[in-house]
Design goal:
Layout: H1 14-21, E1 26-30, E2 36-37, E3 52-56, E4 60-69, E5 80-87, E6 92-97, E7 112-119, E8 125-131
Antiparallel strand pairs: 1-2, 1-3, 4-5, 4-7, 5-6, 7-8
Length: 136
């Protein structure tokens, strides 16, 4: 078991965590407007509709913003990258960037990324991202 802080799945987020365990990044789409959103919730944050569907995302995105953290954090050895990833489907999510040096030389805004999963326990796998096509 990891020293990382463990997320607590709820009924509203169960589909997301089931997906990460299966190696899938799952998002939700509003049926009336087609708006794709994250984080998970039982209604569209744009129009309020409860007519939403869960789907498997591509797992691809780009680096929108990042920091290089130099402070200790549970289960993480500094330095490490905390990023905002803009998913190809539109939403943005926070994640760590793995398999790349935590340096400004190795990280470039808009660089293509792909999802990878960090297994914390039998129940929880965190979606993280790495440079698309391998390490930079």
């Amino acid at each position: 078991m990891s020293d990382r802080i463990m997320p607590t799945p709820t009924p509203e987020t169960a589909h997301f965590w089931e997906g990460t365990r299966a190696g899938e990044l799952r998002l939700q789409r509003c049926a009336p407007e087609g708006h794709v959103y994250f984080p998970p919730r039982p209604f569209c944050p744009k129009c309020g509709s409860r007519d939403v569907a869960v789907f498997a995302a591509s797992g691809r995105g780009t680096l929108h913003s990042y920091i290089i953290n130099h402070m200790k954090a549970p289960g993480m050895e500094p330095p490490f990258v905390v990023a905002v990833v803009e998913l190809d489907e539109g939403p943005r999510m926070m994640a760590n960037i793995m398999e790349v040096a935590p340096s400004h030389e190795a990280l470039e805004l808009d660089m293509p990324l792909e999802v990878t999963f960090e297994r914390l326990s039998d129940e929880i796998a965190l979606p993280q991202f790495k440079p698309a096509g391998g390490a930079a």
